[in-house]
Amino acid sequence: MIVNYRLGSRLIELELIGETLVGENEVLLQKDENLIKRTPWNQEGFSIEKFLSDEDFSKIKEGLTQLLSDKIVEAGGKIDDRFTLENYHLYVNDKIHLTVAKLIQSGWNVSQFPVEIHRVNKRISAIIGVDVTTKAKHVDMNNFFVRVVRPQNFQDNNPPHRDVWLDRLRDAVNIYVPICGSTEQSSLGLVPGSHLLKESEIERTVQGAILNGTNYTVPCVISINNEIPELIRPNPQENEVMLFSPYLVHGGGYNFMENQTRMSLEMRFWKG
Questions:
Q1: With the C-alpha atoms ordered 191, 13, 256, 58, is the resulting torsion angle positive or negative?
Q2: Where residue 43 falls among pLDDT bands split at 50, 70, 90?
Q3: Burial environment of residue 206 by CB neighbours within 10 A (0 to 12, 13 to 18, 19 or more)
Q4: CATH number at residue 81
Q5: What is the reported pTM?
Q6: 55-93 confidence digits (pLDDT tens)
Q7: Which structural domain, as residue segments, surrounds residue 171?
Q8: CB 43 within 8 A of CB 194
Q9: Domain tally for the chain?
Q10: Residues 114, 60: contact at Cβ < 8 Å?
Q11: By the 8 A CB rule, do 26 and 262 touch?
Q12: Is the sign of the CA dihedral 234, 177, 81, 101 positive or negative?
């Protein structure tokens, strides 16, 4: 079947293999932990805020550059002194990139984060008014992730989905921090207010979807209230953080840039 959704001003068309379903007549967030309920943006489900100090952000970008460089080499690629995160796509072919993607799929433990992780925990806690931490109590997870989306390579990002269809990702708040190449043509897409929708208002695949021949672990949203999903593309700038509810429909972050890889720091936080 053909799946359509609108991402900013663009209409995306994908070929889907997989069964679909409509959920129960319930709002998942009403029975789970809503970490953003004290914020003025609770109804929208997301906000863009200042992140850390400029010095800390520079350290983060420098540290992530080293981590990604190491993974390229581990995957069989080569780098030189002209390598930057923005031109990552010039240093990898599809085979090397897919190997890198698998190597970083589970992220890195926060002990490897380029600045003290307590600074990040403290900042996110201050924004939402709840003491939170990257360390999950219900599952062995205390990681940070880097999303790598090459220009014009449309298999590098997840389709529209809700994280919380994977039970281990419930009760959290997410962040998206642009590291490079994040613009209105490449940033993460989301559906404002969709964290408050009933499951019965969303049609999705039963399990992970096969879209245009690529396998995804997350279920794909097919329609919202029998209409094609409409995702906006918020555009956080350097050293800004986009906080959002994992109950939001989000994803589909295609990179329509011609010559810049988009990389973003992605983390999840639970009540401390």
A1: positive
A2: very high
A3: exposed
A4: 2.60.120.620
A5: 0.95
A6: 999 999 999 999 999 999 999 999 999 999 999 999 999
A7: 2-271
A8: no
A9: 1
A10: yes
A11: no
A12: negative
